[in-house]
Amino acid sequence: MDDDLRARLPDDYEDCMHLVTDTRVYSCGEAVEQVAKRTGAAGWWLTAAARGLPKYPDARETLYRWAADRRSVWGKLAREESLPE
Description:
mainly alpha; two-stranded antiparallel ribbon; 5 helices; 53% helix; 7% strand
């Protein structure tokens, strides 16, 4: 990993995913939200609508942690043969 990039990541960077841009570092659920928005993934607009709800950031991070803690399950559901090329 590039030293400049590593210096921008939080100390606990191995605990979740990160999106590093020229101006910011997004972590965990916020990183997933930003990736969905930037790639135009289906339903990204739901997160935009939900941002105004009370406790949305807490709920987003709780959902992220729930999904991240079940990576092995998602891997079994999305077998290599079923992924688009």
